C-alpha cells in the first residue's frame, strides 16, 4: 500500500501510466497498482510457482485486469535491458514511457534494476526498495586465520566509495562482509526500543536458546539439519524444556562427514534424542545467566543497523548520480511496519 501510493505520486508527476515490476512475486503490488490507480503493469518474476499463483489469484479475484496486468516468467539480471524492452513491446505495444519498480528487491536484483534503468530508453522513473543485502553475489573469497575475507560483485558500486576506500588503503574484504550486510537488514532500533519488557524477555530467550543449540552442535562436531521448512516454533516453546523438545523433533544433529541415511536406526535416534536433550539442557543452565546480555548486544546491533544500511543506500545513490541521473532517498513507511522503509527514487528528463 505504501509503495503503491509513492509510485502513483511519482508516476503522475512524470505522466507515466505503465509500470514494470522487477521481481513481482505473487503479484500483490501489480494488482494493487491497477486496482487502486488503473495502471497497466508488467510483472517479471523468476519463480514459476509464484507466477502460477499470481495468475490463479488474478483470474479469481481480478478477472477484469487480465489485459492490463501481465505476468511473465523471467529472471532479471543486469544484462536484461533488451529482453525487457522486447517483452514490453510484445505485451503493451506503443508504450514509450515506463516506471521500473522493485519492492524488497533482493540481493543483486536491486543493482540490476539500477543498471537496467540507466540503459533502458523507455524507463523514465525508478522506485526501488531493496532488501537482503547479504544475498549479494560474492566475486572472491579469501580464507585467512580466524576469518574469511569476502568481496562482492555489486558492492561497493559507486566510484565515490571505491575511491575513498582506495585512498585510505582499506581492505573491505575484512570488514564489509556478509555479517555487515546482514546487519544492515536487521530490524530498526525504533521497533526494538518500543518493545515491552515481556517482548524483550521473549526475544532474549529465543536468541540465547538458539545460540545454545548452535553452540552445542559445534562443540560436539554436529551439523544442524532441518527436517521441516521452519525450525523451532516459538508458539510451542514455553520454557527451555519445551524449546529443546520441539527443536529435536524438527532438526537432525548429524555428525560431520556422515550421510543422513547412515545415521543410526530409529530406535538409536530416540535414545540419542533423550541424551541430547539432557546434555543441551545442562549447557542451557550454564548459559542462561547471559539472558540480559543478549538484549544489551541486540541494542548495540540495532544502533549499528541504520549506519550500515545508510552506507549501502548512499553508495547506490551515488552510482545513479555518477551516471547523470537525479535520485533521492525517500522514507516510505514506518520502520515498525517494515524494517526496509526507504526507497530510492530516480528519474530521467
From TrEMBL:
<dbReference type="Pfam" id="PF13679">
    <property type="entry name" value="Methyltransf_32"/>
</dbReference>
<dbReference type="InterPro" id="IPR029063">
    <property type="entry name" value="SAM-dependent_MTases_sf"/>
</dbReference>
<dbReference type="InterPro" id="IPR052220">
    <property type="entry name" value="METTL25"/>
</dbReference>
<protein>
    <submittedName>
        <fullName>Protein RRNAD1-like</fullName>
    </submittedName>
</protein>
<feature type="domain" description="Methyltransferase">
    <location>
        <begin position="6"/>
        <end position="137"/>
    </location>
</feature>
<dbReference type="InterPro" id="IPR025714">
    <property type="entry name" value="Methyltranfer_dom"/>
</dbReference>
Amino acid at each position: 500500500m505504501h509503495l503503491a501510493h509513492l509510485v502513483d505520486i511519482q508516476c503522475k508527476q512524470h505522466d507515466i501510466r505503465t509500470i514494470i515490476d522487477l521481481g513481482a512475486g505473487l503479484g500483490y503490488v501489480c494488482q494493487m497498482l491497477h486496482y487502486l490507480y488503473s495502471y497497466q503493469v508488467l510483472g517479471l518474476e523468476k519463480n514459476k510457482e509464484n507466477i502460477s499463483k499470481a495468475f490463479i489469484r488474478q483470474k479469481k479475484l481480478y478477472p477484469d485486469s487480465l489485459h492490463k496486468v501481465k505476468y511473465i516468467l523471467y529472471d532479471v539480471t543486469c544484462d536484461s535491458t533488451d529482453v525487457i524492452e522486447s517483452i514490453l513491446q510484445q505485451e503493451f505495444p506503443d508504450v514509450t514511457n515506463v516506471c521500473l519498480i522493485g519492492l524488497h528487491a533482493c540481493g543483486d536484483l536491486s543493482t540490476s534494476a539500477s543498471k537496467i534503468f540507466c540503459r533502458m530508453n523507455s524507463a523514465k522513473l525508478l522506485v526501488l526498495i531493496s532488501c537482503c543485502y547479504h544475498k549479494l553475489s560474492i566475486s572472491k573469497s579469501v580464507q585467512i586465520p580466524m576469518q574469511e575475507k569476502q568481496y562482492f560483485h555489486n558492492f561497493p558500486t559507486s566510484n565515490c566509495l571505491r575511491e575513498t576506500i582506495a585512498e585510505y588503503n582499506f581492505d573491505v574484504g575484512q570488514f564489509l562482509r556478509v555479517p555487515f550486510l546482514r546487519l544492515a537488514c536487521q530490524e530498526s532500533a525504533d521497533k526494538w526500543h518500543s518493545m515491552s519488557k515481556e517482548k524483550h524477555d521473549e526475544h532474549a530467550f529465543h536468541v540465547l536458546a538458539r545460540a545454545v543449540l548452535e553452540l552445542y552442535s559445534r562443540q560436539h562436531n554436529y551439523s544442524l539439519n532441518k527436517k521441516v521448512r521452519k525450525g523451532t516454533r516459538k508458539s510451542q516453546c514455553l520454557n527451555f524444556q519445551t524449546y529443546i523438545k520441539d527443536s529435536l523433533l524438527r532438526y537432525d544433529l548429524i555428525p560431520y562427514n556422515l550421510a543422513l541415511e547412515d545415521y543410526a536406526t530409529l530406535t538409536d535416534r530416540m535414545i540419542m534424542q533423550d541424551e541430547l536433550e539432557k546434555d543441551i539442557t545442562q549447557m542451557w543452565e550454564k548459559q542462561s545467566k547471559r539472558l540480559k546480555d543478549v538484549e544489551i548486544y541486540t541494542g548495540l546491533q540495532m544502533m549499528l543497523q541504520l549506519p550500515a544500511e545508510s552506507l549501502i543506500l548512499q553508495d547506490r545513490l551515488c552510482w545513479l548520480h555518477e551516471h547523470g541521473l537525479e535520485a533521492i532517498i525517500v522514507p516510505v513507511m514506518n520502520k515498525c511496519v517494515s524494517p526496509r522503509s526507504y526507497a530510492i527514487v530516480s528519474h530521467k528528463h
